[in-house]
Specification:
By secondary structure, the chain is α+β, with helices and mostly antiparallel strands. The protein has 5 helices and 7 strands; from the N terminus they run ββββαααβαβαβ. It has one domain: 60s Ribosomal Protein L30, Chain: A, CATH 3.30.1330.50. The structure holds magnesium ion. The site of magnesium ion has 4 residues, from strand 1.
Length: 158
Amino acid sequence: MTRIGFGYDAHRFAAGRKLMLGGVEIPHTHGLLGHSDADVLLHAVCDALLGAAALGDIGRHFPDTDPRYKGISSLTLLSHVGRLVQANGYTIGNIDSTIVMEHPKVNPHVEAMRRAIGEALTIPPEVISIKATTNEGMGFVGTGEGAVAYAVALLHTI
Ligand code: MG
């Protein structure tokens, strides 16, 4: 059996934070604000995987009120989600995702992100797709106030 899952996340930009995207640190004037490292792409991927397995959402598994998750690398959260999905009898078919942000350019870092996500989930980078676009200056993404990510994932029963 094959199951599909969808994930969405948004984070606000803030000064004095590292910009972590897809498990990779990207040089920029601002980072994303959040309880963890605020990796918006990895959070969307986590929710897509959890959604496909009907295991709730990232907020349920890693509450932002829990001090254990303060400043945590989202790659650690993603690894945990990968193991959870596997423990529930699924293998990951493929993941597709889109990052929406105005700055900085994401495309030069996509291959490193695919490798990082592949390592965290122990799947080959060939089954992980990461796309990037801007919001053409419109809305909160367009003004640079924040960034958004969407992801879908397919799971197969073992
Ligand atoms: Mg988030």
